[in-house]
TrEMBL record:
<keyword id="KW-0732">Signal</keyword>
<feature type="domain" description="Ig-like">
    <location>
        <begin position="48"/>
        <end position="139"/>
    </location>
</feature>
<protein>
    <recommendedName>
        <fullName>Ig-like domain-containing protein</fullName>
    </recommendedName>
</protein>
<feature type="signal peptide">
    <location>
        <begin position="1"/>
        <end position="32"/>
    </location>
</feature>
<dbReference type="InterPro" id="IPR036179">
    <property type="entry name" value="Ig-like_dom_sf"/>
</dbReference>
<dbReference type="InterPro" id="IPR013783">
    <property type="entry name" value="Ig-like_fold"/>
</dbReference>
<dbReference type="InterPro" id="IPR007110">
    <property type="entry name" value="Ig-like_dom"/>
</dbReference>
Amino acid sequence: MSSFAAVGRTMRLNGRLTAAVLLLQALTLARCLQLTEITVPDVVDVRETVTLSCSYDMGTHKLNSVKWYKDEREFFRYSPLMPKSLMLFDVEGVTVLQNSTGQICNQFMCSIQLHRLNIRSSGSYRCEISGDAPEFKLAHGVGNMTVAVYPQFDPIINGLQHNGVQHNYALGDFVVANCSSDMSSPPARLYWYINDRNVPSDYLQPQHESTVENDGFQLRQRTLEIRFYIDEKRLGKLKGKLVLKCLARIDAIPQATRESTQIIYIPTTDELRNQKLINWRGSDACSLQHATLARLSVLFTVTLGGFRWFV
C-alpha cells in the first residue's frame, strides 16, 4: 500500500471519529436538562405587579423542582413530585401574589408574580431547576431588577395663565414660565421646546430641585424656568401661535416620560391693524354720541330757563 493511500485512509477514519464524537455530544446535550430562557424586568415602577418567568427543556429527565431566589435567598419553590407542590419562604422585599392567573408552573415553564414592591425589592433574581433522582441535575438563570418610582402626573406649566385665563401676548412681549416635574426616583430631567425645537440655553434659568424621602426612596421634584422675547428673528415665522412643550424624561426609563403643552396665541399684523381700526371707529362713534347728548342737554337747559314747556 502506498503512503498516499495510507494517509487517505487515516483521514477518512479521523473524519468518521469526529462525526461520531459530534453526534454523541449532540445526543448527550439533547438528554440533558437546560434552562432556555429567563425573564426578569430590568426596571419596574413600585406600584406595579411584575411577572418573573423561566422556561426549560428537561430532556429525558423529570422535573424535580423549580426554585426562585432573591439575592441567593429562596422565596418560592415548585415541587410537582411532592404532596405540597408549592412553598413560599419569607424574604425581605418579596411578596408573591398567590392564586393569580399569572402563576403557572409545569414541566416546561414557571411564571410567578410579585406585588407590594418597595425599595428592598431591587436585586438579583435567580431561577433554578433540578431533575429527578438519581442525578438531580441542575440548571439556572439570573436577572437583575431595579424598583423605581415613576412620575404619575404630567409636568405642570405655570406663568402663562392667571386665574385660569390665558395671558395675551404680542410680538416683542417677554414670556416667563416654569415647568415642574412630578416627584420621582430617579429624578426626571426637564426639557423645554418651542414649536418642537429645543430652546437655546440662554432661554433657561438654573434648575431647582426639592427632595422628599418616602419608604426609603429619595423622591425628587425639579423646576426649570424659561424666559424669552417673542421675536420672529430668533423663533422664526410664528403663524399666529407658539407651542410651548415641557418634557420630563428619565433617561434610563424612557417608558416613564411625561409631557405637557400650552399654546400662546399671537395676533398677526393684519389682525392688530383691524383691531385698531375697530377700536378707532368705536371710539369715534362714542364721541359723536357724547357730543349729541351734550347739545341736547344745553338746549333743554335753555328751554327750562325761559319757561318754555313742551308736553
